[in-house]
Specification:
The complex is a heterodimer of chains A (about 190) and B (about 90).
Chain A (H helix, E strand, L loop, with lengths): L2 H7 L13 H27 L1 H9 L3 H26 L3 H31 L8 H30 L2 H27 L3
Helix pairs in contact in A: 2-3, 2-6, 2-7, 4-5, 4-7, 5-6, 6-7
Chain B lengths: L4 H18 L1 H6 L1 H23 L7 H27 L1
Helix pairs in contact in B: 1-3, 3-4
Classes of the chains: A mainly alpha (about 190), B mainly alpha (about 90).
């Protein structure tokens, strides 16, 4: 193989090419992790400055519903990982089945979260109720948008069920899962 | 059917999620310990997702370390902030 062939085969992403899926999704994943990390850091600092206010806000949240949603999302992540494994093995129909399962569980996560929001709004809590609820609704709402976007991405990659496409879509989905795993205890459970 | 790496990761994640839900009664009596436990469970869950679901187990150490470090820094920062508030 000539040097020119090697250059033509490379996509110009350098060390990002060693990651599963399209390197572009990893640029997005690292950007999202940085943004959510800063956002969670701001939440933690605000809680340290106003512990009583944040404790009062946290006490009104439904940690059980959020716990159920954790189980829903990690199960969805497992289904997505199974879908990626099936796509790599060339089993496109099976891959689509697992990805549909992951999307259905993602939709269930959204439904549970909206039900939870409805309960919180019924108690009179909104974006402007307190700094706790401003950060709570922004953080969880931003995450919820990512769940919705993740479902759309999974739907697109499940169409062809090609290995690289599925790996790209599921990498985004696992990032959404990872964010929730960290957000859940920090927002709902950790005592200020 | 013999469970593979993905099944074992999922079972561990479910177990840790259930353990997380059981910790809150401890918060009243031993908040610092409970917070440490909750955030350790989160770090362990994050590690499983990074290695097995995101499939970074076979990726270069740089990427595996970078994503794992993100998880550890966020949970450690949350615990330190709660510890400082408790000790002041």
């Amino acid at each position: 193989m000539s040097a020119t062939d090697c250059e033509q085969q490379g996509t110009g992403w350098g060390i990002l090419e060693d990651l599963p899926g399209d390197p572009m999704i990893w640029v997005l994943i690292f950007s999202e992790l940085a943004a959510f990390g800063l956002f969670l850091g701001a939440f933690v600092i605000a809680r340290a400055l106003h512990p009583a206010l944040f404790a009062a806000g946290q006490a009104t949240l439904d940690a059980h519903l959020a716990g159920i949603n954790t189980i829903v999302l990690v199960t969805s992540g497992w289904a997505a990982a199974r879908g990626a494994a099936a796509a790599r093995a060339g089993e496109r129909v099976r891959a689509r089945g697992w990805l549909f399962g992951a999307m259905a569980l993602g939709a269930l996560f959204i439904a549970v979260k909206l039900f939870e929001y409805a309960g919180e709004i019924a108690l009179g809590n909104g974006l402007e109720t307190s700094p706790f609820f401003t950060l709570y609704f922004l953080l969880t709402g931003f995450h919820l948008l990512h769940v919705g976007l993740g479902i759309v991405i999974l739907a697109v990659v499940s169409w062809g069920a090609r290995p690289e496409g599925v790996e790209t879509g599921t990498a985004f989905w696992h990032m959404v899962d990872l964010l929730w795993i960290v957000m859940f205890p920090i927002i709902y459970l950790v005592h200020p | 059917m013999i469970p593979d790496r993905l099944d074992i990761a999922w079972i561990m994640l479910i177990g840790l999620a259930l353990a997380t839900i059981l910790v809150p009664p401890l918060v009243v009596s031993r908040p610092l310990f409970a917070n440490a436990l909750l955030l350790t469970f989160a770090a362990l869950k994050g590690r499983r997702i990074v290695l097995d679901f995101l499939d970074l187990r076979s990726a270069p150490a740089l990427w595996r370390g970078l994503v794992s470090a993100w998880v550890i820094i966020v949970v450690l920062f949350a615990w330190l902030a709660s510890a400082i508030v408790a000790l002041i």
